[in-house]
Amino acid sequence: EADIYQTPRYLVIGTGKKITLECSQTMGHDKMYWYQQDPGMELHLIHYSYGVNSTEKGDLSSESTVSRIRTEHFPLTLESARPSHTSQYLCASSDWTGRAGNTIYFGEGSWLTVV
Amino acid sequence: GEDVEQSLFLSVREGDSSVINCTYTDSSSTYLYWYKQEPGAGLQLLTYIFSNMDMKQDQRLTVLLNKKDKHLSLRIADTQTGDSAIYFCAESTGGFKTIFGAGTRLFVKA
After folding, report:
1. How far off is chain B from A77, nearest CA to CA, in Å?
2. How far apart are CA B2 and CA A73, in angstroms?
3. Measured CA distances, A24 to A20, A68, A73, A105, B74 (Å)
4. Cα A55 to chain centroid, rounded
């Protein structure tokens, strides 16, 4: 069972506000990810990290930024939220094992609505 | 390039078996995964299979892998209404890279 936590779970904010979505994992995984997913739709990788001080952009361009100062923590920040940012944001982590490969474990998601 | 494809929808009657199919393109895939996503939640790992295996069974779930055709399937026996969800197939070729399909929406009719 994975231990990865996201806060807030649900957030409604006004256009132009700054928002940080928090993500923490207690498994000591090196790799962490942020995916964006519209309701019932496919996943889009927007950011990932190989470890502390490593951050990379994913396949889908995003106006958000991330940081990785500690292994367990991978926050995502939107400096100025817009209605087009309304979506579910899923944080995940993984580590390579010979038994199960690069198994990715997901948090419960943060639902962001920008009005 | 790497790609994972799934049919978008599947509808079955309660008590029947469900078979969700997936095809992948990367022949170097080493692990293949099935995830379940219920409404409003994250993805939950259901099961995985190593590429040197043909089949894996776990209670009501059976995973079949045809490496020659790069085809993966998930069979759910005695499907229940609680199995209604989106099922994602994923492949991993090593390192950080795991590619997800677009998900199959399973509807279970009572």
Report:
1. 20
2. 29
3. 13, 11, 5, 12, 31
4. 12
CB-CB: which of B31, B94, B105 is closest to A100? B31
Asked whether the beta carbons of B75 and B18 are under 8 A apart, the reply is yes
Q: What is the DSSP letter of A73?
A: B
Note whether B48 contacts A: Cβ–Cβ < 8 A: yes
- The shortest C-alpha distance from A76 to chain B (Å) reads 17
Instruction: State how far the Cα of A93 lies from the Cα of A28, in Å rounded to an integer.
Output: 9
Q: Is B86 on the interface with A (CB under 8 A)?
A: yes
Mean pLDDT score, A28-39: 94
Whether chain A has a CB inside 8 Å of the CB on B92: the answer is yes
pLDDT of B105 higher than 90:
yes
- Taking residues A79-104, report their average pLDDT: 89
